[in-house]
Amino acid sequence: MARPILDIRDLSVSFATPRGSVEALRDVSLTVPQDSIVGIVGESGCGKTTLISTVLRLLAYNATVKSGEIVFEGENVLAMSDERLRDLRGRQVAMVFQDPMTALNPVLSIATQMLDIQYREPIPTTEKRRRAIDMLRRVGIPDPEHRLEGYPHHFSGGMRQRISIAMALLMNPALLIADEPTTALDVTLEAQIIRLLRDLKREFKGSILFVSHNLGLIAELCDEVVVMYAGEIVEQGSVRQLFHDARHPYTRLLLECDPARIEKASRHLPTIAGNLPDLAHLPGGCIFAPRCPRVHEPCRREAPQNYAASKGHDVRCFLVRDG
Predict the structure, then answer these.
(1) Which has the higher per-residue pLDDT, 213 or 73?
(2) What pLDDT score does 203 carry?
(3) Taking Cα atoms as reference points, which of 192, 223, 212 lies closest to residue 96?
(4) CB-based contact 118:128 (threshold 8 Å)
(5) How far out from the chain centre does Cα 135 lie?
(6) What is the pLDDT of residues 188-197, one digit of tens each?
(7) Which residues, at least 6 apart from 244, have a Cβ–Cβ distance to it below 8 Å?
(8) 218: helix, coil or strand?
(9) Average pLDDT, the chain
(10) Residues forming a β-bridge with 28
(11) 85: Cα separation from own chain's centroid
């Protein structure tokens, strides 16, 4: 098998706070294969953004990587020098942030920002400008020759997100990380961005790590899915395995909460009872046990390991181990 583009192994990250150490990620392992799209899904606060920020070492000053490795194309990102890391960001790994208005500089034109990204390229400014125009055209910005001189506030939310994607792809990175890029968009623009990402993935032959709350988007876009809860990966497998044969109670509850699966009109949306645990004072046993409708005795005594439900389908749950 080909070596994965990204291999995260037993990653644990904590944050120092006045309340003590917050264990944001614990023993997280996942891979992003070559030429594939891997989705990460879970409730707010489950560690999705912390995980992808750690990939590019964009963590806050109070964060500590306690253990693990992040191997990108054979190199451990956590052991890279600052110089090597700067060369990696943007050129080999690029990120599309959640809010395009804050991701783009409001006082600089789109032309200035897209040309600045290419500062490493030893080519004339006219060629850099031509490449920027061509990339805007590829992501569907009309009249890119003139719109290039506009400022972020001249564009709609959907167009700003397209510009952010164009800037991320300008250096043709091997891995694109998309942090909930459709959250602020309406459903029509959301569908356009998903089609755009799928088309660009085929065109640029890269891999995508896609973070979202929207299970429908994950099902439509991704090849593999990773489900996170309270800093742990509780289930991972192919899209078909996760959506047709989910084994972890948390994954099943997430699917039941998907509005697209509601068959009868109702005034009440399904929810998952209870709250996320306090990551500064972790409970013993399974992290999901206090909210799990199928909790049994082993869950309260010890934390489960990853168990194989089928080939390529791993679940952190005693129900799988015990059949």
Answers:
(1) 73
(2) 78
(3) 212
(4) yes
(5) 23
(6) 777 777 887 8
(7) none
(8) helix
(9) 90
(10) 11
(11) 20
DSSP per residue over 42-93, as a string?
--TTSSHHHHHHHHTT---TTEEEEEEEEEETTEEGGG--HHHHHHHBTTTE
Residue type, 22: V
User: What are the residues whose beta carbons fall under 8 Å from the beta carbon of 205, sequence distance 6 or more?
Assistant: 35
Coil, strand, or helix at residue 238? strand
Work out the number of other CB atoms within 10 angstroms of the CB of residue 200.
Answer: 19
CA distance 168 to 176: 7
Strands 313-315 and 224-229: unpaired
Classify strands 6-17 and 63-72 as parallel, antiparallel or unpaired.
Answer: antiparallel
Architecture of the domain defined by 6-92+173-260+270-321:
3-Layer(aba) Sandwich (3.40)
Structure tokens given for 217: 């988007």
Q: What number of CA atoms fall less than 13 Å from residue 266's CA on the CB side?
A: 10
- Asked if residue 275 lies in contact with residue 307, where contact means CB atoms within 8 angstroms, the answer is no
Angle 30-234-247 from CA coordinates, rounded to 5°: 115
Residue whose token pair is 């390529």: 312
The two beta strands, 313-315 and 232-238, are antiparallel
211: nearest Cα among 43, 83, 5 = 43
What's the one-letter identity of residue 265? A
Q: What is the pLDDT of residues 12-36, one digit of tens each?
A: 999 999 999 999 999 999 999 998 9
- SS3 label, residue 200: helix
Mean pLDDT of 37-57: 93
DSSP-based three-state secondary structure for 323: coil
Cα dihedral angle (29, 292, 312, 196), rounded to 10 degrees? Answer: -80
pTM value surpassing 0.85: yes
Query: Any idea where the domains of the chain sit in the sequence?
Result: 6-92+173-260+270-321
For residue 206 the two structure tokens come to 């890269």
Exposed / middle / buried, residue 258 (Cβ in 10 Å: 0-12, 13-18, 19+): middle
Q: What span, in angstroms and rounded, lies between the C-alpha atoms of 156 and 13?
A: 36
Token couple for 92: 């080999």
